[in-house]
């Protein structure tokens, strides 16, 4: 098997990232999951993530097989949590958000999301961000299962039928 590597994405990766996202959108549509409908995310959003230095890729050999964004700014969508509360209030603890995570359709089933999460956790730690948040659509049962397996705790709902989770990387296991 080819070697798995991880790195910050560059503009040269934009087309490969977009293809993975487009494939994920198609699978979500088949699963009747409207999470990435209506033009979101777009190629422009992917390029903006790369330009900010927030996009990361997982490679199998030379091929980009997974992607995620480690958002390092506050997100207004995370301010109105319904039916629960965050582990730490926003003002008390800085956080990063994992957004736009996807694994290539051709490489699903190989637990690449586990490797990607592991690397994202390491990246967050090196940036001094040990409190992470993530969300997904209520109909995205596949991602909810992956999130739970990686240790995130369900915290409530966000607007747009999104379920929210968080994780303290420093908490004892």
Give the strand order of the largest sheet, numbering strands 1, 2, ... along the chain.
Answer: 1-2-3-4-5-7-6
The whole-number mean of residue pLDDT values reads 93
Q: What's the gyration radius in Å?
A: 15 Å
The helix content is 25-40%
What about the largest sheet?
Answer: 7 strands, mixed
- CATH superfamily grouping: Gcn5-related N-acetyltransferase (GNAT)
Structure commentary:
The protein has about 170 residues and is an alpha+beta fold. The protein has one domain (about 5-105, about 110-170): 3-Layer(aba) Sandwich (Aminopeptidase), CATH 3.40.630. About 30% of the residues lie in helices and about 30% in strands. The protein has helices at about 15-30, 45-50, 110-125, 140-150; strands at about 5-10, 55-60, 65-70, 95-105, 130-135, 155-160, 160-170. Helix 1 (about 15-30) packs across helix 2. It starts with a strand and ends in a 5-residue tail after the last strand.
């Amino acid at each position: 098997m080819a070697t798995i590597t991880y790195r910050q994405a560059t503009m040269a990766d934009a087309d490969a990232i977009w293809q993975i996202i487009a494939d994920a959108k198609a699978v979500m549509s088949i699963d009747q999951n409207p999470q990435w409908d209506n033009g979101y995310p777009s190629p422009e959003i992917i390029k903006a993530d790369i330009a900010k230095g927030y996009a990361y890729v997982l490679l199998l050999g030379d091929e980009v097989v997974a992607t995620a964004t480690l958002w390092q700014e506050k997100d207004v969508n995370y301010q109105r949590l319904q039916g629960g509360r965050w582990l730490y209030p926003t003002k008390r603890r800085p956080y990063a958000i994992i957004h736009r995570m996807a694994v290539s359709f051709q490489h699903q089933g190989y637990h690449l999301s586990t490797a990607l999460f592991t690397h994202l956790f390491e990246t967050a730690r090196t940036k001094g961000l040990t409190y992470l948040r993530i969300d997904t659509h209520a109909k995205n049962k596949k991602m909810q299962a992956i999130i739970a397996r990686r240790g995130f705790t369900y915290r409530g709902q966000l607007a747009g039928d999104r379920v929210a989770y968080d994780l303290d990387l420093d908490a004892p296991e």
